Amino acid sequence: MATRKKAKQARPAAKKATVKKTAAALPAPSKLPYGKAGKALDGVRILDLSHVQAGPTCTQILGWFGADVIKVERPGIGDITRGQLRDVPNADSLYFTMLNHNKRSITLDTKHPKGKAVLERLIKHCDVLVENFGPGVLDRMGLTWDYIHKLNPRMIVASIKGFGPGPFEDCKVYENIAQCAGGAASTTGFRDGPPLVTGAQIGDSGTGLLLGFGIVTALYQRTKTGRGQRINVAMQDGVLNLCRVKMRDQQRLKHGPLKEYGQFGEGVPFGDSVPRAGNDSGGGQPGWILKCKGWETDPDAYIYFITQAPIWEKVCDVIGKPEWKTDKDYATPPARLPRLKHIFATIEQWTMTKTKYEVMEICNPVDIPVGPILSMKELAEEQSLRKTGTMVEVDHPTRGKYLTVGNPIKLSDSISEVKRSPLLGEHTKEILGKVLGYSEKEVTEILQSGATSAPLKSKAAA
Ligand code: COA
Description:
By secondary structure, the chain is α/β, with parallel strands linked by helices. It has helices at 2-10, 12-25, 54-64, 94-97, 113-125, 137-140, 145-151, 175-181, 204-225, 235-242, 244-252, 262-265, 312-318, 333-336, 340-351, 356-363, 376-381, 383-387, 428-435, 440-449, 454-461; strands at 45-48, 68-73, 103-107, 128-131, 156-161, 230-234, 287-291, 302-306, 370-372, 391-396, 400-405.
């Protein structure tokens, strides 16, 4: 403290100058109203070599925030998902359209000499390269980190692989493999059943979102260092990151049974690994999925009910068990833990007399945390989600109108618009000319060389 005071006295003029300089360096706030000042990632150009779900999730969200996403696709085929799970003949599948909004598509055979040259020019014109090829593919294309860095020292190279360095690093990986290898499947499902995968695509979309976070972080660091860097996210790591609470419980096991797990109350001993816990809550507040009115015919007539300790007395009143408020077997959280199965069965007797929405109406005003099990149909029809842009209707030239899931991250000064996915190679000419600066003659040469078009190549060969 004293030293600091001394320093302050010794250099008063210098300190004043610094303060003045910092204040002057602050950018003046925009006078434009919120949402009218462009997009957060305006000016960032992404070279999108990604395919299927994990990489495209990442580049789509960057596109929603305003990045110019140039998706490179194999001539004639494109991203394999264009043709997978097709519901409308000759139209890009929903699998593709729902993961590739706000992008431009250029077709390029990266193994063709001219295609390779175009790709190298793209590297020089972009800020970030995103890829989720199988292990070693990028290197086999000749695009090692050293080479890319030499072409463009500012380039950020962002990769998703199934596994990080280790015994499985050479393996190809899809969603469910990541869920299994990342600890999600072993901890999901019921104790007496097999491991289960979840419908939420935590391996693909989850890892894509993590990669997006890595990219904006690296872009921020580049503002200070001026150079790019490599980003690697392994799907196993991404899933494990989302399963953190189960790794917490793994360590707690050493110190005794997991009392908030239903199996404790049932008297079933724990093994040496975290068991599947059915619908037990993952936190300190016991919860379970309970039947509601209509459950016999409606597979989604259920509600998640949490017996949060501070509102326990309200739970007792609502379900008609006021005597539990003072009964020593029910009045305190530790007393309730061995009886959770009975407690939830009793609450269920009450929820079964109400629809899930009626349970919401009764419980929410008294702060009892409950949540309806919503079907995809109900979510698709929910108007409030349309109003916030979480669900969006998009028009597409070959498939017509379809519903998609929009940006869940709402920034007040960077409004998200969801623009339809590109047709295969829709922007090839535009990107060659306007982004890469090839002359009209050069563009024609490239187009005729077979580097961008499989059919032209076979015509030339014939
Ligand atoms: N022009 C020419 N060739 C191209 C090309 C283009 N525009 N785009 C891709 N290719 C080639 C690659 O060079 C590679 O060829 P090579 O093996 O001869 O080097 C091949 O197409 C693609 O290989 P790969 O990425 O391994 O595709 P795959 O269909 O065999 O495997 C995955 C798909 C998803 C399993 C694999 O990419 C993978 O494990 N990715 C990492 C993990 C991941 O993201 N998984 C989740 C996907 S949602």
